[in-house]
Each structure stands twice: as structure tokens, then as C-alpha cells.
Specification:
By secondary structure, the chain is of the alpha+beta class. The chain has 16 helices and 21 strands. The protein folds into four domains: 92 residues, 2-Layer Sandwich (Uridine Diphospho-n-acetylenolpyruvylglucosamine Reductase, domain 2), CATH 3.30.43.10; 123 residues, Uridine Diphospho-n-acetylenolpyruvylglucosamine Reductase, domain 3; 109 residues, Alpha-Beta Plaits (2-Layer Sandwich), CATH 3.30.70; 117 residues, GMP Synthetase, Chain A, domain 3 (2-Layer Sandwich). Strands 12, 13, 14, 15, 16, 19, 20 and 21 form an eight-stranded antiparallel beta sheet that branches. It has a five-stranded antiparallel beta sheet with strand order 5-6-10-8-9. Strands 1-2-4-3 form a four-stranded mixed beta sheet. It binds flavin-adenine dinucleotide.
Length: 505
Amino acid sequence: MTIAPALTDPVVDELCQVVGSDQVLTDKPARFNRARVPAPFPVHRWSERVPDVVVLPGSTEEVAEIVRIANAHRIPVVPRDGGTGLTDGAVPLRGGIVVDVKRMNTIKEIDEVNRTCTVGTGINMLKLNEVLARYGLIYPDDPASYPCSLVGGRIGTSGWSLIGSRYGHTRDLVLSFDFVLPTGRVIHVGDGAGHKLSKSSSGYQLKHLFMGHQGTLGIATEATLKLFPKPEAELSPFFAFPDYDSAYRAVGELARAGVATFAGAVLFDEWKVDYLRRDDEAYIPQPADVRALVCAVAYGYEDEVIAGGRRLLRIAKENGGRYLGDEVSEGDWAARHDRYATPLHGRTRAGQVVPMSWHCEDAAINYSELPKVRLEWHEIVRKLRDRFDMFDDWGMFAYTSANTGVDYLTEIDVGIWEQRLDDASWAAWVQAKKDIAAVALRYGGSISACHGSCREGEVDLVPQELGGGYDVMLAVKRAVDPNNIMNPGKYGLDRAYEPDAGGVR
Ligand SMILES: Cc1cc2nc3c(=O)[nH]c(=O)nc-3n(C[C@H](O)[C@H](O)[C@H](O)COP(=O)(O)OP(=O)(O)OC[C@H]3O[C@@H](n4cnc5c(N)ncnc54)[C@H](O)[C@@H]3O)c2cc1C
């Protein structure tokens, strides 16, 4: 196990002085449980990724003080919120201190006049929206991990929302936040210096720089969020199609229609429908003639949702879609936050049911490229499954990212029998992830629309994706975090500290 050499008892004592000894955890379960995230994991190497100590601060000042101590002693710091991130961001690669911000979960202000709220970044959207509902308001950041991911982790990953085609994604919804830099200095970033501004042209757009960095640049502690009227009506019709091609055409037409209440559309391919039907994973009836599915979602006032919904239904019908009825439509959409929380299993090639965990590759792909990417991705997983009978293809989703349907969060879900992983199968899996990422780049996409791309495998392709932008990332990392204490080892950023790292000129 990696032990940060400087993390000695006197340092633990210093941390105890900042937060109190009951908020400094050194026992094995507390540390091992913060070593992993719900993504396939080389279980045989678990002990390599365990923090030396977990600290639970209660305020921005405490976070700043912890980071100052870590920086003075050159100890790695890994920020952790819900621990649901799927790109290993919250997994400590070098031991050190996990700063778990879950105690910082209060609502500091609800400003009904400017339609904002200010919260500790340890709050989850479910709890926040329960309170906002009393004011007729909603914070519409709606990932599938809605009940368990937290505002700080949404900032750390620059998350993607299921209803982002109407309301925007995390980057649009977070107006500003307090941010502890790796030196322990606290800054406020937003549009300009504003706490509640949605648009400023003053200076660099630092808010975006300090989002999606996977905790490599610092820790967000308090955030001001944009609020909306709680929608009166929600429409989520599911349509069945006899084949992928007609479903693909329909999803494009739905997304391009310009319906104002359109909040998103989801395309399920044949592999996904087969998987859902195979073991009744969806807990909803799937008629046998259904080969592909499309769901279109509209949110807003009842009258506008009815009017927009009529148009969406007509478009789906004109493209060969058959409405699957209210029970399937409402039930499946309502289950969007629960699906992956259920115990998971997959099948071997011979059809034996075995325990498997879920892995999701999530590229951003233009609409025009979806069919080609889909076939290449399934082929990569098929070859992997042929070599190692511990992987299972759970099919693909494509979700709109914007209300024009320009690009889609394109996801292939792979089941992995984790307990069977060994070095050879892990290496093959890492290579498969690289191959999947390479296909996305070849078709002009991005490695990740949603989770980030810092996992073993796809992370090797990030310099290729970003080109000169990656050199700027290295320079920024070195300037902001001179001692490489903040989540070291992620995104290949260690190379920023090599003597020949070069500059950006
Ligand atoms: C079932 C399931 C469904 C999912 N669906 C979606 C989805 O629809 N959309 C989506 O975007 N994601 C989804 N995810 C992935 C995950 O929920 C998101 O990436 C989420 O944003 C992570 O939030 P978290 O609070 O769990 O963060 P964590 O996992 O704790 O952290 C994520 C990253 O952010 C960093 N970080 C954590 N807290 C802070 C902070 N306060 N300041 C700075 N950096 C910080 C961490 O170091 C890490 O690198 C899903 C995950 C699961 C398990």
C-alpha cells in the first residue's frame, strides 16, 4: 500500500486540531470504503488505492486549513463528495488525505427574487429539491445518480443532466462557487467576481476552468445555483420501433424540431432492448416485436407541454414509432434514478447468470456519426467477450446533450464479473476502453460527455484529443498546484512537473 511518507502522527494531530479528532478517520473500513467508486475496479489491487486518512471538514475555512497543512508537508489530497464518479476521480492513487465534504450540506440562502440558492457543496440534489419544492422552485441538475451525487462532485466532473436539453448542464446551472486552491488560498469564481451573475465578459472565464478538473485544481466548498419554476407537467412518451434505423431517424427529427419544452430524447439500440428484455431488467413489459426504443421528454407548464407534446407524438408516429402507453412511459422515466442501484448481474457466453458490475463508456458523438460508432463499439466488446468470458454487452443509449440534437452522450454499458478479473483480463479491458475512446475521436467526438476521461486506458488518449490544449492544461496545473498535491496521478498531469515539461509557447 502507498503511504504518503510525510503523513506521520504529528500531521494527523494537526488535522485533528482543525476539525476535531472525531472528524479524522484512520480506521481501515473508513479508508477502504473511500478507495473506490461504482465503476469496475481491479479488486485484486484494491489495497493499492487506499487513503492514509479521511477528514470530514465542516466549513470552507477548515478545508483551506487542511489543504495548507497538506501543501506544507507535500501530502496528496483527494476531494470526495458522493463518490459516484465513474472515471475514478475520487480514487486516491497515492494515498494521502481524502477530504470528504459530505458534512458541508446545508442550504445557506434561497433568494426568491433573483431565483438562486447558495449551498454547501456536500448537499445532494434530491434533498435540495425537497426544500425548494416548498417555494415552487427546482434546481434541475438531473443525472441518473441524482439521489447520491452531490453538488461538489457535479462541479468536479462538470456533469451532464438528463433534462439538460431544456435547462442546461451543471456548467450552466452553477453560477459561482468558493474554491480552495492547492495552496490553501480561497477564491470565488463565477461570471466575473459575481456570486449571482449568469453572464459577464470580465476577464478569463475561470468558472469553467475550475469545473470538470476532477479535483486536480482544488476543492469547491460553497456554490450559488440557478433556479427555475418547478415544472407543472412532465411528459415522457416511449416509442417502439421495428429496427434501429427508424428509431435513429426519429430521435434526430424529435431533437431538431425546436419544441420549446423539449428536455431530452433517449435512443435505446437493439442490444440495449435485448438486455432489458433478457432478464426483465427494466421491470416493465417489453413486447417481443420491439427492436429499438426512443423516449422524448418535455417539461414545463401544462398547457405548453400539451401543445409541444402533440408535436413530438406526431413526429414519432410519422417516423414509424408506436406509442408504448402511459404505464411504460411514465414508469420507465420515473425509474431513471433507480435503474443502476439494483443488484446487477450479467451472463456468460453460455448464458449462465453471474454477478457483474456495470461499466459505462460515455463519449460525445455528433448525430451524423452515431450509427458507425455504435457498430464499432459493439464489435470491440464482442472481441473482448470472446477472449474473456467475464464481460457482457449491455447495449447502448444515446441521449441528446442540446436542444438542437447536435451531439449525443453516447453510452455503451458493459457488465464485468469483477471477482474474476486478473492482470491479463484487466489489461485487455483497459485496451478495450482505449479502443472505444479512439473510435470516438476518429469520428470527431470527445472521449467523454459526462463522467470525464481520467481512467486508466482512455486517459492515454487525452493529449491526442486536446492537442495544444493539453499543454495549456499542464501549464495551468503547474501554476496553480506547484507541489502537485491535489489529486496527483490523474489525467497524466504528473508530466507537468518533469524538468522537460516545456511551456505553452
Ligand atoms: C448510477 C449512476 C448514474 C450516473 N449517471 C450520471 C449522469 O446521468 N450524469 C452524470 O454527469 N454523471 C452520472 N454519473 C456519474 C457521477 O454521478 C457524476 O460524475 C457525479 O457528478 C459525481 O458526483 P459525486 O458527488 O459522486 O462526486 P465524486 O465521485 O465524489 O467526485 C467526482 C470527481 O470530482 C472531484 N470532486 C469531488 N468533490 C469535489 C469538490 N467539492 N470540489 C472539487 N472537486 C471535487 C473528485 O475528486 C472526483 O475527481 C452516474 C453515476 C452512477 C453511479
